[in-house]
Every structure is written in C-alpha cells, then in structure tokens.
C-alpha cells in the first residue's frame, strides 16, 4: 500500500518535473524572440518619433517584427486611429468656402502602399535601391491604403481642395502615378504635384516647403497635411495640423 502510494507520488513528481522543464525550455526559446520584439518595438517608437535620424535600413533582427507589424493588423489599427483624429479635426473646421481651403496628402505609403515591394527588400533591412523601386513604381501596382482613401473622400465631400504632393519623378513616373491613383480610387483631387527637373536633388523638406509656399502664395490655406515621412511635414508652411502616418520600412531625408 505504502509502496504503491510512493510509486504514484514518484510518477506524479516525474511528470511535474518534465512539465516544468518543457515550460522552462519553452520560455528560454521564446525569450530570444521576445527580446527581439522588445528591442524592435523600442526601435520603431524611436523612428516614428523621429528620434533616430537619419536611419538607412531596418535592423536585420527586426525584419520579422516589421512584417508582423505591417501585415497582422497593427499597422491598419494605427492608421485607423490617426484617420479618426483627422476626421475629428475636419468635422470642426468651418471652411472659408472660397475654393482655397486645402489639404495636402503625400502619395507613397500615404495614399498608396509599397509594402508588397518592400517585402522583396526584407521590409527595409536591405539598403535603398532606387532602380528597383523605380521598376516597381512603373508597374503601377501600388494598392490604396483604405483608411487614407476614406479621409481623401471625406475631404473632397466636405469641399476641400485635395492636393497630392510627391517626391516621385514627374518625367518618368508621371502617367503611371496618375493611372495608379485612379485605379485605386483616388478620384477628384485638385492636382498632383510631382518632382520636376527644377527640384531635382533638393531634399524632400526643401522641395515640399517650396511647393507649399507657392500654394500659399496662390492663396491656398493649408488646413491639414498628411504624410508617412517627417520630411512631408517639416519645413515651412506645413499646414495648421499635420498627421504623421507610420512607416517603419524606410526614411526619406
Ligand atoms: C532575433 O535576433 C536574432 C539576432 O539578430 C536573429 O538571428 C533572430 O532571427 C531574431 N528572431 C526573430 C524571431 O526575429
Ligand atoms: C523656411 O523659411 C525660412 C525663412 O524664409 C528660410 O530661411 C528657410 O530656408 C526655409 N526652410 C525651408 C525648409 O524651406
Ligand atoms: C492656420 O495657420 C495659419 C498660419 O500659421 C494661422 O495664421 C491661422 O490663424 C491658422 N488658422 C487656424 C484656424 O488655426
Ligand atoms: C533556447 C532556444 O531555443 N532559443 C531560441 C529562441 O528563439 C531564437 C529565434 O527564434 C532561436 O534562435 C533560439 O535558438
Ligand atoms: Mg510617402
């Protein structure tokens, strides 16, 4: 009787120990990836707040993290929250109504997405490759970012002039960008301003500031400005409110 009870106890203890060792092994295994996750979250926060600049590539250990962020829902949720803030702001604006109330939206990774391209570049772990990006952009396969398309339509319905301002080269990417925007539902904007020869080589901050100055000189009031890069929003004549969309894949100075 006592023997049998002892045997059962031993058996129980053996099972318990094995369970604990599995659990222990499991937590060690996971701790490396959670250390990565923790590091990559800090890194993403630093780049989104523009504390780390300029940065050239995503840290190699964060490729998986960035993929998960982009395709498992958090990116869309972040965008939705920002767009909700923009909606609240839009609803509170009383337009002057002279046709000069404007918003500025960036194009790449603001209106239309390049995530599919960046997948082939390890989500930004590989260095920037202008020729490959151009080859991708020429295909015109960028997809609409749904929350931004909702904002775009809301702005137009509320009577704003929506001006799209992009660093894309006008000469080589002009028509394909117009077509790509149209086939993704971006219809009814006031104009698309692309980088012409006169602005070649200028930093995005300077180029976009110069264009915004011209718009304000024409009499436009820039109520809002939306972009995935700080360089969309910095500089002069930035607009009364700016909205920074997330982009952990690349940095445009
Ligand atoms: C964590 O980082 C290490 C070292 O950079 C890398 O080898 C590993 O693949 C990363 N793990 C995950 C889950 O991303
Ligand atoms: C902003 O305006 C100031 C004053 O006119 C000028 O010196 C500066 O270069 C401008 N900055 C940009 C980025 O355009
Ligand atoms: C928008 O910004 C301009 C320039 O900074 C300022 O003059 C104007 O009062 C602002 N309008 C509102 C409604 O905040
Ligand atoms: C002890 C252990 O299994 N650690 C693993 C944790 O996860 C990383 C990344 O998946 C592995 O490289 C480790 O070997
Ligand atoms: Mg952009």
From TrEMBL:
CDD domains the record matches: HAD_VSP
The name this protein goes by in its record: Acid phosphatase 1-like
A GO molecular-function descriptor: nutrient reservoir activity
UniProt signal peptide: 1-21
Coiled-coil stretches: none
Superkingdom to which the source organism belongs: Eukaryota
Keyword Transcription: no
Family classification: Belongs to the APS1/VSP family.
A UniProt-annotated Pfam family: Acid_phosphat_B
Stated role: May function as somatic storage protein during early seedling development.
Keywords: Glycoprotein, Signal, Storage protein
